[in-house]
From TrEMBL:
Entries under SUPFAM superfamilies matching the protein: ADC-like (SSF50692), Formate dehydrogenase/DMSO reductase, domains 1-3 (SSF53706)
Keywords, comma-separated and alphabetical: 4Fe-4S, Iron, Iron-sulfur, Metal-binding, Molybdenum, Nitrate assimilation, Oxidoreductase
SMART domains listed in its UniProt record: Molybdop_Fe4S4 (SM00926)
Domain 4Fe-4S Mo/W bis-MGD-type: 3-62
Record has Iron-sulfur as a keyword: yes
Name assigned to this protein: Nitrate reductase
Gene3D superfamilies documented for this protein: 2.40.40.20, 3.40.50.740, ADC-like domains, BFD-like [2Fe-2S]-binding domain, Dimethylsulfoxide Reductase, domain 2
Organism: Marinomonas primoryensis
Residue spans crossing the bilayer: none
Length: 891
C-alpha cells in the first residue's frame, strides 16, 4: 500500500515553505517522511536543513501530556475551571487589566483570533501582547507611519526581479535560507544584479554580496538618510510620484540634509569608508529596480521605527514601490508573525488591521463581535507588561507558545515578574522549558503536524498547516483551550465554533465587515468558507476580497495608500546610535542573533541530533585582537557580564566581527547549559514608538575563565547532578553527551564521586591518567557494557563523540580492544570528520579539506565526491569558504 502524503507548511521561519509530510502506513516503510512541496510558491519543492529535519523532531521524550495544576496532573475540565475561576476573580476584584495574554508569532491565526477576541471583546482588556513585540513591532510602526497601514508591499519574486538588493540587518543565508537560495540563484543567472549587505558582522550572507558595509552597530539610519539626500542631488527623484502620492517630502529631505550633509559625515557616523558608501550610492542612483530587505539588525533597536522609515523614505522618493522588483521589504521571522498582525494580536492593535485610534473601529468591532466588554484603549506592550506584573498590577498571565524566560530582555526581571504573578498559565508542547518551570498551570498543546489552521508568510501568503498526526496524550489545540475557558467564563455563544474553519470564516468576515476598500486587510472571499474548502485551501496572498479569489501579488501598484488622504507619508529622520554605547567599565558592544541549524529556544530543533552538529555549544564571537588582549584563546570559556547578569560561553575567535564588538547566539537555555541565556545581559531598553527591545546592542565586559579543565562526558543515562563550572548538553543520537568545564586540581576520586550517574547503576571505573599531558580518561563499565566515559584535558580539545556514543548504544559485551579504544578516544579505523558542515549528509570539515587536497576545487565537485551541499543547500556559503581562491592556489 502506498503511504499517504499530507501537505502542510513548515513551522519555522517566515519564508513559509510548503512541506509534504509522508505518513508511512507501516513502520517498515522507508519513505522519506518530509519533503518540499513542489507546488508551493514559497519554495517550489526546496527545504532548508531545519525544514528537512522536521521528522526528527516529531518524537520527543519531553512532551507535556496532561494539564498540570500546581505540580499535579489534572483533567482538562479541572484545569479549565482553575483558569477561568481565577480570571473571573481578578477581573471582579481588580478590573480586566489584571489579566493578560502573552502570545506568539508561532500560534496559528485561528488560535490568535480567539485569544484576541476573548481579551479585547469579552474580558475587556487589550493586554494581548506577543513575542512579535521582540521581532517586528518596529517594522509594523514604520509601515503604518508611512502607508497608514501595516502593509508589506513586496513579494518573493521581487527579490529575483530586482537589479539591486540591499540586505540590511539580515543574515538570510541562515535565517531565511530558501529565500537566500532564490536570491543566490537570481544572482547566478544575472551576474549584473548587485547585492549589498549592511551588517556590522561578516556573515554567511555576505557570500553572495558585491559589497559588505560593516557599519558601526546601530548606525543604519545615516546610510539611508544619505541615500535620500544623494537621490535629490543626483536628480533621480520621482517628482511625479512625490507630488501625486505622498506628503512631507520637503521636511524629510531638509532633515536628511541636516543629519547627513555630505558623504564624509554619513560615512563617519556609520563607520564605513567613503568609497564603500559611495559605491552603494552610485548603484542606488543607477538602479531603478531596487529592493531593500530588512530584518532584526534594523528592528531590534531603540530607534528601529526611524530606521524603517529612513529606508521607506528612500523608496518613496524614487517611486521604487508598487512595481516589479522594487520596494522596502520587511521580512518576518516567525511562521505566523504576519497572521498575528492580521488578527490584531498586539496590545496596541484592535482587530483585523484596525487600531483603537482608527475612527469608528471600536464600535465596528464591538457590533461585529456583539461584544459585552470592549477594551477601549491600548494595552501593555511586552516589556511594560512584565514590569506591571512585577508591580503586582497584572495578576494572571496566560503565556502561549513562547519562552519569555529566554527571549525577553533582562530575564532576572522576567523571573521576578512571574514569581510575583498570582497565576501563571503556560500553554506549551514541552514539559520542561525555562518558562514552564515558573508556571502554576501547564496546558498541553498540540504542535506542528498535529494542529490545524492557517499561517501567513512574509509575502502575505496564507497557507494551511494541517493536522496529519494524532495528538499525543491529552494535548489539545490552543484555540480549543481558549474557547473552553471563554465558555466557562460565560461566553458560550461567541466561542462555540463548529471547528477551526469556522473561526477562519469569522476572521475573514470581520476583515471585510464595512470595509469597502478602506482597510488593506480584506479576505472577505473566505467569509463563507466551508470545512471542505478550508481543508483544500491553496496558498494565496491577501488581500483576497470578495470577487478576487486569486488574491494580490503586489501592493500599492496604483500609488494609493491607506492614509486618510490616500497619500504615503515621509518621516523626517534624525539618525541616532544605541542607547547603551560601550564605556570603560563595559567596553564591549554585545550583538545577539541566530545560528544556522537552531530555532530559538531549541525546544524543537534541540530534538534533532543532526542539527546540533554544526554548532554544538553556545559561543561568543570575538575579534583576535580583543581576544589576545584579554588572554582568551579559541574555544576556551569566557565570562560575559553586563549590569543585568552574566553568561558563560565558549570563545569563537574570528575576524568576522570587528574589534570592540562581540556576538552571541540566542538559542541555549537552562535546559541545555548552565549559564548561556544571553537575554540575561540585555537591558529593557525599547524603541519609544514600537516598544521593541534593543536586543542587538548591549554593554558587556568579558574575562577569560582560567584554572579549569575542559571535558567531555557521554553517558547512557542523564546525569543526576551537574555541578560543573560550565556544562552544555549536546543532543545526540545515542545516550547523553555533555561538554563540561571543571575547576583545575580536582582529583580523579573527586571527579568520580561528583559524577553522579543514576543511583540504580553500579559498575567499575576504568582509568587512564597522563601526568605529562594532564589528560584524564575514565570509563564506567556496568555488566561489561559502557555506561559512561569522561575525558578531561587542560585545554579545549575537540573530540568526535559519534563513535563513543555509538558504543553506548551497543548492547553487547565490550571487547578488550574496545575498552582500550574507549580510553584512547577513537579507534584507529574510524575517521575523524571534524566539525560538521553539511548537516544533511553529516559531512565534516576534515573530510572536506581532504577532498580538496585530493583535487576537488569547486562546491560542485565537493558535492559530487561527498554529497555535501546537494540536498538542502544551507551549507553552500560555508562550503565556498573551503575552496581556495586563485591567489591562494597559486601562492
Ligand atoms: N536558523 C534560524 N532561522 C531563523 C530563526 C532562528 O531562530 N534560527 N528565527 C526566525 C526569526 S523569529 C527571526 S525574527 C529571523 C531573524 O532573522 P535575522 O534578522 O536575519 O537574524 P539575526 O541573527 O537575529 O540578525 C541579523 C543580523 O543583524 C545584524 N545586526 C546587529 N546589529 C546591527 C545593526 O546595528 N545594523 C545592521 N544593519 N545589522 C545589525 C547581526 O549581526 C545579524 O547578522 O530569523 C528567523 N529565522
Ligand atoms: N537577545 C535576543 N533576544 C531575542 C532575539 C534576539 O535576536 N536577541 N530575538 C527575538 C525574536 S525576533 C523572537 S521571535 C523571540 C523568540 O523567542 P521565543 O518565542 O521565546 O522562542 P521559542 O523557542 O520559539 O518559543 C516557543 C515556545 O512555544 C512552544 N510551542 C511550539 N509550538 C507550539 C504550539 O503550537 N502551541 C503552544 N502552546 N506552544 C508551542 C515551544 O515548545 C516553545 O517553548 O526571541 C526574541 N528574543
Ligand atoms: S526556509 Fe527552512 S525554516 Fe524557513 S520555512 Fe523554509 S524550510 Fe522552513
Ligand atoms: Mo522573530
Amino acid at each position: 500500500m502506498t503511504a499517504t502524503i499530507g501537505k502542510t507548511t513548515c513551522p519555522y521561519c517566515g519564508v513559509g515553505c510548503g512541506v509534504n509530510l509522508t505518513i508511512p502506513n507501516s513502520s517498515t516503510e522507508s519513505v522519506p517522511p518530509v519533503s518540499g512541496d513542489l507546488n508551493h510558491p514559497a519554495n517550489f519543492g526546496r527545504l532548508c536543513v531545519k525544514g528537512s529535519s522536521l521528522a526528527q523532531t516529531l518524537q520527543s521524550d519531553d512532551r507535556l501530556l496532561t494539564p498540570i495544576v500546581k505540580g499535579e496532573s489534572v483533567s482538562w475540565e479541572s484545569a479549565v475551571g482553575t483558569v477561568s475561576d481565577k480570571i473571573a476573580q481578578v477581573v471582579q476584584d481588580h478590573g480586566p487589566d489584571a489579566f493578560a495574554f502573552y502570545l506568539s508569532g508561532q500560534i496559528l491565526t485561528e488560535d490568535y483570533y480567539v485569544a484576541n477576541k476573548l481579551a479585547k471583546g469579552f474580558i475587556g482588556t487589550a493586554n494581548v501582547d506577543t513575542n512579535s513585540r521582540l521581532c517586528m513591532a518596529s517594522a509594523v510602526v514604520g509601515y503604518k507611519r508611512a502607508f497608514g497601514s501595516d502593509t508589506v508591499p513586496c513579494n518573493y519574486e521581487d527579490l529575483e526581479l530586482c537589479d539591486l538588493l540591499i540586505l540590511v540587518g539580515s543574515n538570510a543565508a541562515w535565517t531565511h535560507p530558501i529565500l537566500y537560495q532564490r536570491m543566490a540563484a537570481a544572482k547566478k543567472q544575472r551576474p549584473n544584479m548587485k547585492i549589498v549587505v549592511i551588517d556590522p558582522r561578516e556573515t554567511a550572507t555576505c557570500d553572495i554580496a558585491d559589497l559588505h558595509l560593516a557599519i558601526k552597530p546601530g548606525s543604519d539610519a545615516a546610510i539611508f538618510s544619505f541615500l535620500l539626500q544623494h537621490s535629490a542631488q543626483t536628480g533621480i527623484l520621482d517628482n511625479d510620484f512625490i507630488a501625486q502620492h505622498t506628503n512631507g517630502f520637503n521636511d524629510a529631505l531638509k532633515q536628511a540634509n541636516e543629519s547627513t550633509p555630505n558623504l564624509v559625515s554619513a560615512a563617519k557616523f556609520s563607520g564605513v569608508s567613503e568609497q564603500a558608501l559611495m559605491r552603494l550610492a552610485h548603484w542606488w542612483e543607477q538602479t531603478e529596480k531596487t529592493v531593500t530587505f530588512y530584518s532584526q539588525g534594523v528592528n531590534q533597536s531603540s530607534s528601529g521605527v526611524d530606521k524603517c522609515n529612513a529606508i521607506i523614505n528612500c523608496h518613496l522618493a524614487t517611486g521604487r514601490i508598487g512595481k516589479e522588483g522594487t520596494g522596502p521589504f520587511s521580512i518576518t521571522g516567525q511562521p505566523n508573525a504576519m497572521g498575528g498582525r492580521e488578527v490584531g494580536g498586539l496590545a496596541n492593535q484592535l482587530a483585523a488591521h484596525m487600531d483603537f485610534a482608527t475612527p469608528g473601529a471600536q464600535d465596528l468591532v464591538q457590533r461585529f463581535w456583539q461584544a459585552p466588554n470592549m477594551a477601549t484603549e491600548n494595552g501593555l506592550k511586552a516589556v511594560d507588561l512584565f514590569q506591571a506584573m512585577e508591580e503586582g498590577k497584572v495578576k494572571v498571565v496566560w503565556i502561549m507558545s513562547t519562552n519569555p524566560m529566554v527571549s525577553l530582555p533582562d530575564t532576572a526581571q522576567v523571573r521576578r515578574a512571574l514569581e510575583k504573578c498570582e497565576l501563571v498559565i503556560v500553554s506549551d508542547c514541552k514539559a520542561h522549558t525555562d518558562t514552564t518551570a515558573l508556571a502554576d498551570v501547564l496546558l498541553p498543546a498540540t504542535g506542528w503536524s498535529e494542529k490545524d489552521g492557517t499561517v501567513t508568510n512574509s509575502e502575505r501568503r496564507i497557507s494551511r498547516q494541517r493536522g496529519l498526526l494524532p495528538a499525543p496524550g491529552d494535548a489539545k489545540h490552543d484555540w480549543w483551550a481558549i474557547c473552553e475557558v471563554a465558555k466557562k467564563l460565560g461566553f458560550q455563544s461567541a466561542f462555540s465554533y463548529k471547528g477551526v474553519h469556522d473561526i477562519f470564516a469569522e476572521h475573514a468576515a470581520l476583515s471585510t465587515f464595512e470595509n469597502n476598500g478602506k482597510r488593506d486587510f480584506d479576505i472577505g472571499y473566505f467569509s463563507q468558507i466551508s470545512k471542505l474548502e478550508y481543508d483544500g485551501l491553496i496558498p494565496v496572498q491577501w488581500p483576497v476580497p470578495k470577487g478576487k479569489p486569486e488574491g494580490t501579488k503586489r501592493m500599492f501598484e496604483d500609488g494609493r495608500f491607506f492614509t486618510p488622504d490616500g497619500r504615503a507619508k515621509f518621516v523626517p529622520i534624525v539618525p541616532t546610535l544605541p542607547i547603551n554605547e560601550p564605556t570603560s567599565e563595559w567596553p564591549f558592544m554585545l550583538n545577539t542573533g541566530r545560528v544556522r541549524d537552531q530555532w530559538h529556544t531549541m525546544t524543537r530543533t534541540g530534538d534533532a541530533a543532526l542539527l546540533t552538529k554544526h554548532t554544538d555549544q553556545p559561543y561568543v564571537e570575538i575579534h583576535p585582537k580583543d581576544a589576545r588582549q584579554l588572554g582568551i584563546e579559541d574555544k576556551t570559556l569566557v565570562r560575559l557580564t553586563s549590569p543585568y547578569g552574566e553568561a558563560l560561553l565558549k570563545a569563537k575567535v574570528s575576524r568576522a566581527i570587528s574589534p570592540g564588538n562581540v556576538f552571541a547566539p540566542i538559542h541555549w537555555t537552562q535546559q541545555f547549559s548552565n549559564a548561556a541565556v544571553v537575554s540575561n545581559l540585555i537591558p529593557q531598553v525599547v524603541d519609544p514608538l514600537s516598544g521593541q527591545p534593543e536586543s542587538k546592542h548591549a554593554q558587556v565586559k568579558l574575562e577569560a575563565v582560567t584554572e579549569v579543565f575542559y571535558g567531555v562526558i557521554v553517558s547512557a543515562t542523564p546525569l543526576e547532578a551537574l555541578d560543573f563550572t560550565y556544562w552544555c548538553y549536546v543532543p545526540s543520537k545515542h545516550g547523553y553527551h555533555y561538554e563540561v568545564v571543571w575547576p583545575i586540581g580536582e582529583s580523579v576520586a573527586s571527579i568520580q564521586s561528583s559524577f553522579k550517574i543514576s543511583a540504580q547503576v553500579t559498575g567499575e571505573w576504568l582509568e587512564y591518567t597522563n601526568p605529562r599531558t594532564q589528560q584524564i580518561r575514565l570509563a564506567y563499565i556496568t555488566d561489561q557494557k559502557l555506561t559512561a566515559a569522561v575525558y578531561l584535558h587542560p585545554t579545549p580539545k575537540s573530540i568526535s563523540c559519534d563513535w563513543l556514543e555509538s558504543k553506548l548504544a551497543v548492547n553487547e559485551t565490550l571487547s578488550e580492544l574496545d575498552r582500550m579504544a574507549i580510553l584512547v578516544g577513537t579507534p584507529a579505523n574510524v575517521e575523524d570528520k571534524g566539525t560538521i558542515v553539511c548537516s544533511c549528509f553529516q559531512v565534516g570539515s576534515k573530510q572536506i579539506e581532504k577532498a580538496i587536497a585530493g583535487g576537488a576545487c569547486s562546491v560542485e565537485e565537493l558535492g559530487a565526491k561527498l554529497k555535501c551541499g546537494t540536498n538542502c543547500g544551507s551549507c553552500l556559503p560555508e562550503l565556498k569558504h573551503f575552496i581556495p581562491t586563485i591567489t591562494e592556489l597559486s601562492a
